């Protein structure tokens, strides 16, 4: 794209592209630390975005870190104090392990959540500008030095900053402009995602976040604000040819019919609005740090929505990015080291939940070891708590599959599913293969420093000389 003549050039400490979860968290944290921050978002704010928006306790703890939790709670979504999961006839109830004193989940629609987050950034001192679409990055040699954007009136403007934060989602303009849009690790999902809102009935159990697995299908019911319940289904993915006009409604309805307990949960509820869909999904890691730039949120790392990790990670790594570099913005060498360390830490912290998510996203019929896990957790509250804790990041998947527990699951699966012993043994062999592959990936692609060595920036917008219109923000 060829930019129009620049009508104004500004300077600030940080420019954040994207005003939603990762961007607002970063902006609020920078601003609270006394840094000048400009936030640009192409959308009109507040506005909706494609998201299933469940917040586990760890996500709510991030809102608490930002002093935004009370305002989010005021939106009216109920506290979800019970997690319920059912598969193969085994139902598992559990509470949530506490994170910073929070032991409940919430499902908050994005229009309200994002409005609170943007307001939090503004109240902290950030300059948030909606309807401002970034068109290119400005370079000073090999260093990202700012951005150009079209403002709400269609004028081309330029902002110079010590750091450009690309919090602009999976189709990130900043990732593309710095040459980081191609992931260094990507795993296609085996599931498509369809969801809708329903007007919940008065006697519904609005304190329960529920999930059902039947065959290869997965479905959920999460009560949310305004008396609604969000119901999501994730059937096995189909080819592009199966996603034509009317496919979302058809596939959603068909999946509901295959999950009778979810259909029963929605009995007496009225669907509100259209079916929304996310198809052709892939989980990935992109290079997320370089000279003068960083990519928190989905711009740098994305996981399939099956484990509902996106909002928590966007908030957490937006906030921790600002905490990591706020004191060194004026020292380019120290800034580059700090963003590289922040990226390394995210890779290390997220790789296990990445593997866990990809396993659940395969879109396959329940495997023998999975069935045995549900059976065991139904009778073992401690095991159920560990499972709930994995989703809220208080436990690691490794805490669930310790050698002794994995052996016990295999033995009990062999006893309970003796008639299908070959399938049990094949599942054990597959588990060993998967664990070996994940170990190799951890030692190589996701070892923590591989990300910064995998790709290099390819700037294609050159530095322009500051004109007389330059001023400080």
From TrEMBL:
The keyword Oxidoreductase applies. Residues 452-465 have a biased composition (Polar residues). Keywords: Oxidoreductase. Residues 11-340 form the FAD-binding domain. One of its GO terms (molecular function) is oxidoreductase activity. Residues 445-473 are annotated as: Disordered. This is Flavin-dependent dehydrogenase.
